[in-house]
């Protein structure tokens, strides 16, 4: 960082930029898009997990139904919990790359300057 860049940081302070960014329409759009994905996906996963827990507690006969050898429905649903976690992560990465990162990059470019 050059001396003039350091002087600019010292004069304006990091808090000033953050307040401007937080008040910007682009930042509001970024938050809206993030929440549009995260909240429904969180509810969906928690409901899916709660169903698994309730079935494990109250549907012993169903969960202990053997599928192949000693592999039963409970084990299958338990493994699907892990699969769904990785699936949600992959979907989020794709969503973030397409819908969140372009806005975040524009905001970062405005803060840091496009010349970098």
Brief digest:
By secondary structure, the protein is mainly α. 84% of the residues lie in helices and 4% in strands.
Q: Please, could you describe this protein's structure?
A:
This protein has helices at 3-12, 14-23, 25-58, 60-63, 73-112; strands at 66-68, 71-72. It has 116 residues and is mainly alpha-helical. It has a two-stranded antiparallel sheet with strand order 1-2. Strand 1 and strand 2 (71-72) form a beta hairpin. Helix 3 (25-58) packs antiparallel against helix 5 (73-112). The longest helix is centred in the last third of the chain and has 40 residues, at 73-112.
Q: Structural class given helices, strands, pairing?
A: mainly alpha
Helix-strand sequence: HHHHEEH
Secondary structure tally: strands: 2
The percentage of residues in β strands lies in under 5%
| Percent of residues in helices | over 70%
Q: If you average the pLDDT, what whole number results?
A: 88
Supply the number of helical segments: 5
Low-confidence stretches at least 5 residues in length (pLDDT < 50)?
Answer: 1-10
Q: Major sheet: order of its strands?
A: 1-2
Shape: elongated
CA-to-CA gap between the ends? 11 Å
- What's the alpha carbon Rg, rounded to whole Å? 23 Å
């Amino acid at each position: 960082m050059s001396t003039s860049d350091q002087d600019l940081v010292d004069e304006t302070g990091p808090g000033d930029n953050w307040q401007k960014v937080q008040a910007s329409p682009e930042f509001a759009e970024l938050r809206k898009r993030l929440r549009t994905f995260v909240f429904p996906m969180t509810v969906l996963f928690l409901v899916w997990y709660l169903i698994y827990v309730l079935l494990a507690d109250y549907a012993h006969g169903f969960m202990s139904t053997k599928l192949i050898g000693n592999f039963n429905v409970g084990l299958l649903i338990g493994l699907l919990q892990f699969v769904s976690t990785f699936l949600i992560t992959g979907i989020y990465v794709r969503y973030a790359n397409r819908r969140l990162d372009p806005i975040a990059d524009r905001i970062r470019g405005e803060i840091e300057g496009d010349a970098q």
